[in-house]
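How a chain folds remains the central question behind the approach discussed here. For one protein, we set the task of working out the structure tokens from the amino acid sequence alone. The sequence in question and its structure tokens are set out directly beneath this paragraph.

_____
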Amino acid sequence: MKVVTMQATPVKPPAGADGRRGLLRTETVGPDRGPGVREDREGAEMNNDAYPQGPAPEVGAVLEGLMAENRRRAAGHGAACDLLWRELRRAVAGGKHFRGRLVIDVHRGLGGGDHPAAARLGAAFELLHAGFLVHDDLIDHDTVRRGVPNLAAGMHAAAAAAGAGSAPAQHFAEASAVLAGDLAIGLAHRLVAEVDGPARLRGELAELLWDTIFVSVAGELDDVAAGHGLWEVSHEKAMSIAAEKTAFYSFQAPVRAAAILADAPAGARELLDEIGHGLGVAFQLADDLVGLFAPEEVTGKSSLSDLREGKATSLMLHARTLPVWSSLRDHLGRADLDMATAEAMRTELARSGAPVEVDRQAREVLARLRETLAGAALGPAVTRVLLGAAGMIEASLDGAAEYVARTARTARTAPAAGTAQGAQDAEVTQGAQDTRDAQDTRDAQDTRDAQDTRDAQDTRDAQDTRDAQDTRDAQDTRGAQDTRGAEDAQARPARCER
């Protein structure tokens, strides 16, 4: 293989606003699913409290400067190194960059002003996030991130274009992902080490960075172990995994870093720690729902991943307590899970009570946070920032609820779903209630009447369904009954479309 000939395979974005991913001028509805979330619902703005989208300009400038500096340096180390930095720059540029913005905004709200170290700290958390995602995709065998080939896939394509066979290209891609993630995390360390301030300050920040990496690795490892069933996972353990894997580095650590840099008092730091933890947990719960139920063109990645990996999410822990589990357990965690079976699993999950419970749990966390903030003496600026972050998460929950309802309205195709499951789901799934009622009515009519009553007229009122269906043609000449039959046939699809 001639590495010197490698070139990155250009990725053509699908048609959409500004060439970005999205079918309805929307990128992603998840908390961290792509660059600049714009949902197709006015209510998603959460009044005016939703957290601003896109990177803080100061953080973006630091990241761009670092990428440009290292791209220039990489050019002197050969085509492979240059390509790796090009792909890493693409990975770092994606996403909403709210972690870096949290550092900037909370630091400023605490009276820290526009300290240049805040931008560098914000950039450090964005680099940490990028490195974690590159490694996470490798661990989960994912090749798509934010709707386009991820770093490993880009490196694989370049190796294949240079003449590598399948196995060498895969090895090159995996090695590249490991090394690129290491580079991003290493750059985060560099930024923290270069913070301008007393040795005590740098020591606190360095310790926080190490704690962040340590805790995140522990959560990721537990997540993988739980997916393989190495030990039983309780609901409490699933929440602990979510807190360690995502919540700590996404909210708790950035907020704590801002407090350290602003030299906030111990009481304020403890309160911010508590709030950051809660935001992170709610964030992960919302992401679990969005990741499974939002369509692939919205999330930018396959919904198969969590099902194939057998992720022990809060959603799945709730599902285990419901009748739906009997039709899911034999398929969950199978590497050869096909899309048709996965869609059936998603439908049954949507019709169970599990998504409702996860949604309720996340909203309760956010409600408690709002109560805490109402009685906290953090100042209006910090309170506004944290309420905005809560609004961002709640908007994701709203979007997830819509996608759960849409999924529940799809055709019933689960491989092992029984009629008793349908009755149970109808009692606990509020989002799909109308659809399940219509389905139950059709089932009852099919039992009483001939098979030709299974079309749209099977939910007509009792007077219409008493008549035999084989006289339907004759009804065309009837007066009032004919008009009523046509109206019912038109109204019924409209109900299913709601």
About this structure: Residues 3-408 form a domain with the Farnesyl Diphosphate Synthase fold (CATH 1.10.600.10).
